[in-house]
Amino acid sequence: xxxxxxxxxxxxxxxxxxxxxxxxxxxxxxxxxxxxxxxxxxxxxxxxxxxxxxxxxxxxxxxxxxxxxxxxxxxxxxxxxxxxxxxxxxxxxxxxxxxxxxxxxxxxxxxxxxxxxxxxxxxxxxx
Length: 127
What we know:
single chain, about 60% helix, two-stranded antiparallel sheet, mainly alpha
């Protein structure tokens, strides 16, 4: 029960990038390669994802985002970014998984009220 009394990341995991990255879902091999500062590492985000990220960040600061019209169009929702080895099969699996999740999010919110959908999903997950 040491983990209940001490800060988890810095005292239990000792800020170990390999362990933390594995827990955060970056993939075991990616996390450990990052920990070892492997030269094979690239950004998980390709040019298409970088454009999505840029547009997403620009939209968040706009009035359109706060008035809700952006909340009906998540097409700019980027995949998570992290250092990855593109040759690793686990990376390909993660990218596929994240793309499917993004598509599921897009389908859930398409042309629907953001707040209603979100509250419904939150209530559904509690039951």
